Amino acid sequence: MAIIYKLLDPDTKEVRYIGATTMRFLNSRLCVHVRKARLNIATSRLTDWIKTLIAQGKKPLIETIMLVDDKERYEAETTLIQAFKLVGHPLLNTYKMY
């Protein structure tokens, strides 16, 4: 089972990122995102945004969008990224083709 999730701006509640994880707890996945930003492990628009939030004493909110079978997670994630971008959400995702 996989979780398709969204990261939201803690102030505006605007959706900024769509992701997929097989971690059992979403908070664990959020901790990985925050740790990568704090330790400069990854360089991306997402980590730059999280670094900005950390500098303000904040972190993103994380929420479940849907649960899917593991084998469907990449397709579901990609479809949701496209749908959220189509309706105008300023996502930080880089486009993925699976």
Which helices and strands occur, and which strands form pairs?
Blueprint: E1 2-8, E2 15-21, H1 26-38, H2 45-55, E3 61-68, H3 73-86
Antiparallel strand pairs: 1-2, 1-3
Helix pairs in contact: 1-2
Explain how this protein is built.
- It contains 3 helices and 3 strands.
- The two termini are 18 Å apart.
- A hairpin with a 6-residue loop joins β1 and β2 (15-21).
- 23% of the residues are buried.
- It is an alpha+beta fold and 98 residues long.
- Helices cover 39% and strands 22% of the residues.
Provide a short characterization of the protein structure.
The chain is an alpha+beta fold. 39% of the residues lie in helices and 22% in strands. A three-stranded antiparallel beta sheet has the order 2-1-3, sandwiched between helices.
**Main sheet summary:** 3 strands, antiparallel
Low-confidence stretches: none
Biggest sheet, spatial arrangement of strands: 2-1-3
How large is the count of helical segments?
3
Structural class: alpha+beta
Overall helicity:
25-40%
In terms of DSSP E residues, the strand content is: 15-25%
How large, in whole angstroms, is the Cα Rg? 13 Å
Mass-distribution shape: globular
Question: How many DSSP-defined strands?
Answer: 3
Mean pLDDT: 94
